[in-house]
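Continuing the series of single-chain predictions for the mutant panel. This is the parent chain; the variants come on the following pages.
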Amino acid sequence: MVRSIEDYQKVGEDIFHKLHLATYPVAIKYIKDINTEIPEGYRRPIASGKKMSICQAFTQARRFGEKLCITAADNFCTPATVGHGWVNISKEEFIESQVRQGWHKDVQSETRRAERIYDKNFKNAMALGYRGLVCSPLTETAIVPDTILIYANGTQLTYIIHALTFEHKKKYVINSSFEGFGESCGKGGFIPFILNKTQIVLPGAGDRSFAGIQDHELAIGMPANYVFYLHDNLFKSGKNQGLKFPLRQLIPLELSEKITPGFVYMRELIDKKLNEEKSIQ
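Parent structure:
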């Protein structure tokens, strides 16, 4: 089903309000031609003599409603530029840059890292020919996005995960690894676009240093059209049991298996098996 820009704007508005998000979902589009693919009304930081990291652009979009374009020239976070494949950097040059950063123990550590992420990811990203991205609040997007990035607290993220796994379809399965670097820009934006897979984001060093991420904030990045599946299944998990919205925590003095039908069913099975074991003894 082909979705329009208006469809994306509306679903962004609905999810924002239904989940009571603190900030807007972010719409992200990756571009190859800087001269023709930047929508009207989107600005480049360098046009005003400034630079900005990708995670800062996401913050400006989700918190203040800005529409931005970030390219290699706009982005002061040079590892992210390389990670997105916007310039051709050799593995040796990448390793040297990271050794100078001192993020990891030594040259051997950075070489092992480069063999994993440069050879398998960055080198391939460079071959794709992308040269930048544009981002805005999903509610005001001027383009059909490639990725949607939603920042949320732990409870809101649980509802989102429940919705995406409601049918346990392979397409929507979430598998994420974590490194503490490149989380919002790489994991939240680019990987869902390139691999067509949803990623959980634990905001990393750049997010926390540059982008004003709050301690309680997590995020999830997904291929843009997944947002409609999320919307359709939001709050369906458990029906009238368990987690509801707002969150209803069970804190009685005593709990029993009677709290849900599934617990009751499993209790009956367990009791039956325990009785069978007793009769054998």
